[in-house]
Amino acid sequence: MRVVYSPLDAVALAEKNPDKQVVFFAIGFETTAPPNVMSVIQAQRLGLKNYSVLVSHVRVPPAMKAILSSPHNRVQGFLLAGHVNAVMGYHEYPPLLEEFQIPMVVTGFEPLDIVQGILTTVQLLEAGKVEIGNAYSRAVTFEGLKPAQDAIHKVFMECDRTWRGIGEIPMSGWCLRPEFDEFNAEKRFNVGDIHTKESSLCIAGQILQGLKKPHDCPAFGKECTTENPLGATMVSSEGACAAYYKYGR
């Protein structure tokens, strides 16, 4: 296993080592999709027969809809992830706004960006306004990056995806289109039926939905730490459990 700085580095490895099979683990939200699909396009251009991708991409809007549709939903507003919207824009969100009637604000990642996003959301809530605000206009437009979106849709198609802590959400992921099956590691190595089992101690799903706090979990800080994470909210450095573990104990 090797760490690479770019998916194209994995393509270069395959080109330099024609006797070895090189598999790139294509993960992430919409943010990392463009460079991942470009690696497939480049491998196709080079005619590589030893490069494939194991795709585990997820999409934000379907996950938001799943959370908001829950009968136990407590979410009153969303900070929309600026890096996702820099690629995809926020043209996908008006239907969610219309259906669930909660404000959403595109937010960046610098401290002032986050404060601005929170402030804008609170102001919309207090004014009773159901709108999409953009507190990250220096990087995000309504339409997003059309060339990146075109590349994604050329290589990927929507598919069902299982989310850690939540379960399967219909059409919440991306997978390779049939015309790119030669680069599909699941089919090349026949591993599509392998499924992971989540810890029975973890309540990440309830934390993701705002139903419980990290310290409500009996495993928090004991069996589950940042060194030995049991669920998504502790695995990610941006997760609620990881933040509570680092700052809130």
Q: What does this entry look like structurally?
A:
The protein is an alpha/beta fold and 249 residues long. The chain has helices at residues 7-16, 33-46, 60-69, 82-88, 94-100, 111-127, 146-155, 185-188, 204-208, 232-235, 240-247; strands spanning 22-28, 51-58, 78-81, 104-107, 132-134, 156-163, 167-176. Strands 1-2-7-6 form a four-stranded mixed β-sheet. Strand 1, helix 2 (33-46) and strand 2 form a beta-alpha-beta unit. Helix 1 runs parallel beside helix 2 (33-46) and helix 2 (33-46) crosses helix 7 (146-155). The longest helix is centred in the middle third of the chain and has 17 residues, at 111-127. It starts with 6 loop residues before the first helix and ends with a helix.
* H/E series: HEHEHEHHEHEHEEHHHH
Query: What is the assigned CATH homologous superfamily of the largest domain?
Result: HypD, alpha/beta domain 2
Number of strands: 7
The Cα radius of gyration reads: 20 Å
Low-confidence stretches: none
- Write down the CATH topology of the largest domain: Rossmann fold
Distance between the amino and carboxyl termini:
35 Å
Strand adjacency order, main sheet = 1-2-7-6
List the helices and strands and how they pair.
Elements (H helix, E strand, L loop, with lengths): L6 H10 L5 E7 L4 H14 L4 E8 L1 H10 L8 E4 H7 L5 H7 L3 E4 L3 H17 L4 E3 L11 H10 E8 L3 E10 L8 H4 L15 H5 L23 H4 L4 H8 L2
Parallel strand pairs: 1-2, 3-4, 4-5
Antiparallel strand pairs: 2-7, 6-7
Helix pairs in contact: 1-2, 2-7
